[in-house]
Amino acid sequence: MTKPIDGAIKPRRMQFNTDDMKMAQFAIENNSLISTFFYSLSAMFPEGERFFIHAVRHYQKSISDPKMLADIRGFIGQEAHHGRCHDDLNDQIEKLGIPMSMISNNMAARVEMLKRRFGPERQLALTVAMEHFTASLAEFLLANPEVLDQAPEAFRHMMLWHSVEEIEHKAVAFDVYRLQVDNEWMRRRVMVIAMVSLFSRIAFFQVRILWKTKHMPSFTEWRQAAKFFWGKKGMLRANAGGVKKFFQRGFHPNDIDQSALIDGWEERFPEVAAQQV
Ligand SMILES: [Fe+2]
Ligand SMILES: [Fe+2]
Q: How far is the CA of 49 from the centre of ligand 2 (A)?
C-alpha cells in the first residue's frame, strides 16, 4: 500500500527552460505514434487539470478536516502549476508544426460541455478516474525514465516532475469523493466512460497531428509502438492492471503502492530537482 504523504502536499516552484527548445518533430522514442501520444496528452493537460481543480474546489467549502483542506490546497497548487508549465511546453511543440492549440481548444470546448451537462458529483467522479490514469502514466514514466531519453531536456524534466506530483496527490480527489459523494456505482460507471472517451480522444488527436504534419507512420514505427504500448512491459498493459483494481469494491488509490517511485526522487533525478526555484 502507498503510505500517505507525511504533512501537506506542497507544490514545487519549477522553472523549465523551454525557450528555443531544440527537438525533432517526433522526438519521443523517435517514433511518430509514441510522440503524438505524449504530445496529445501534454496538449490536453492544461484544460484537463483546470477542470480537475474546478471539480474539487466545488466541495472545498463543505470540508472542515484541516488535513484534507491542506491536501486540497496542495492539489490545487500542484495542478495549477502543471497546467502553466505544459502551456509553455505546448507553445514550443507548436513551433514544430504540431497543432497543439487545436487540441487545447477542442479540450476547452469539451470541458465547457462537461461543466454544463455533468453535475458536481459526476465531475468529481470523472476527476477521480482521470487522476487514476495520470498516476498510472506517472508510475510508468518514473519506472522507465529512459523512454524520455531522446526527448529534449525541458520535456523530460517536466514530465518526470509532473509524474512525482501526480503520485503525491493521487488520493486527494478520491478522498474528497469518498467523503462527499461516496457512490461506488457512479465511480465505476464514470471510469468506463472516462476510459473510452480518453483513449478515443487521444487517438483522434494523434490522427489530426499526423494529418497536419503529413506524416505516414512506417511499418517499423507501428511495430515499435505496438511493443511500447502493449508489449510485455508496455505502458498500456501495465495501466490495465491498475484499472482492474480500480473496479474492485472498496478500492483506494493507496492500494497500489507507488511510493518507492517517489521516495528519494531528488537523488535519482538530481537534474530535475535542480529546476526548482
Ligand atoms: Fe497534473
Ligand atoms: Fe493530478
A: 7
State the angle between helix axes of 153-168 and 66-94 in degrees (0 to 180), rounded to the nearest 10. 160
Query: What is the C-alpha separation between 115 and 122, in angstroms, rounded?
Result: 10
Residue 116 lies in a domain: yes
pTM confidence score: 0.94
> Distance from the CA of 252 to the center of ligand 2, in angstroms?
15
Give the structural domain span for 84: 29-273
Domain presence at residue 14: no
Residue 264 lies in a domain: yes
- Residue at 19 is within a domain: no
**Residues less than 5 Å from ion ligand 1, measured at CB:** 49, 79, 82
CB-CB neighbours of 61 under 10 Å: 7
Which pLDDT tens digit goes with each residue over 58-114? 999 999 999 999 999 999 999 999 999 999 999 999 999 999 999 999 999 999 999
The rounded Å distance from CA 169 to ligand 1 centre is: 9
Closest-approaching ligand to the CA atom of 127: 2
